[in-house]
Amino acid sequence: MRSVDNFGEPELEVALELIDEVLARGEHTSYRVLVAAGAGEDEPILGYVCFGATPMTETTFDLYWIVVAPLARGRGVGRALCDALDLHVRDVGGKNIRVETSSQTEYEAATRLYQRQGFRECGRIADFYREGDDLITFVKRV
Ligand SMILES: CC(C)(COP(=O)(O)OP(=O)(O)OC[C@H]1O[C@@H](n2cnc3c(N)ncnc32)[C@H](O)[C@@H]1OP(=O)(O)O)[C@@H](O)C(=O)NCCC(=O)NCCS
């Protein structure tokens, strides 16, 4: 997480909080994490996706964070994590995956990944994060 240059301290703090929650509470939290790693025993972690059932919905999930280590990017790890997420959501009867992102250029890779994975923009709030930085909501039917 610390090698990701488009995350500031507030993003890092929230993302790490969710990981800590999963490590501490396992199945007893609604957050879930899938990790991508090499096949060998001491292979480093390449990336992860954190998601969870959206409160007050029956079949919708939120993708909260997806991160691939800078050195492992552009090799399909993000795609593999999204595919694994789809499988998991489908397995537990989920129908929609929602994800929110920023319109800033730092998030272009994420936006491209979501679009290539079949997410469609379904909403946008102008100047949400700060002037000129919109919140974009994407959704995918699984
Ligand atoms: C977004 C991110 C997870 C993508 O991971 P990745 O492993 O490099 O992505 P992949 O190699 O699996 O690429 C998946 C698709 O997205 C496209 N894509 C990925 N990065 C791209 C980029 N920088 N520019 C254009 N397209 C890009 C690929 O072309 C690919 O398309 P395809 O499936 O048609 O071949 C990674 O760039 C990242 O960790 N970014 C920083 C963290 C972040 O912003 N996370 C999102 C907010 S929580």
Automatic annotation (TrEMBL):
It comes from the Bacteria. Keywords: Ligase, Transferase. CDD domains: NAT_SF. SUPFAM superfamilies: Acyl-CoA N-acyltransferases (Nat). Gene3D superfamilies: 3.40.630.30. Coiled coil: none annotated. One of its GO terms (molecular function) is ligase activity. Residues 1-142 form the N-acetyltransferase domain. This is D-alanine-D-alanine ligase. It comes from Enhygromyxa salina.
